[in-house]
Design goal:
Layout lengths: L8 H4 L11 H13 L6 E3 L9 E4 L4 E21 L2 E18 L5 E7 H11 L1
Length: about 130
Amino acid sequence: MVREICKDESFLAQRAEPATAEDLGVAQDLLETLAAHKDGCVGMAANMIGVNKRIIANEGEYTVMFNPVIVKQSGAYEAEEGCLSLAGTRKTKRFQTIKVQWQNEKFQTRLKTFTGWTAEIIQHEID
C-alpha cells in the first residue's frame, strides 16, 4: 500500500526501534511508496511513512534493509541533499565507501560494501 509521506519533524527526529519479522508488511508498504515517488525519490526510511522502525529501501533493485548499521566508512566528502519529508536541502558529511551490516527479508544477516551514489543514499536513509 502506498502511504502518505510524514513531514512531522519531531517524529522524524526520533530514534527508530529495531525491526522484526512482524514488520515485513511495513517493508512492502515502504517499497510501494518509494516506487510511487520514483520521479523525485531514490531512497526511503520507514519513518517517512509514519513507522518508527529501522527499515530502509533504496532504488535500483528496490532493496530493503532491516536494522542497517554502518560498520566501516572511508573517503569523507560534503554533500547537499534533499528529502521528501523535509523542505529544502541540507549540507551534510558523507563517505564515499561504507560497509553495512543488515538483515534481509528472511532476517538473515548480510554484510556488503557500497560506494558512490548508493552509499550516499544508504547513509541518508540510516540518518
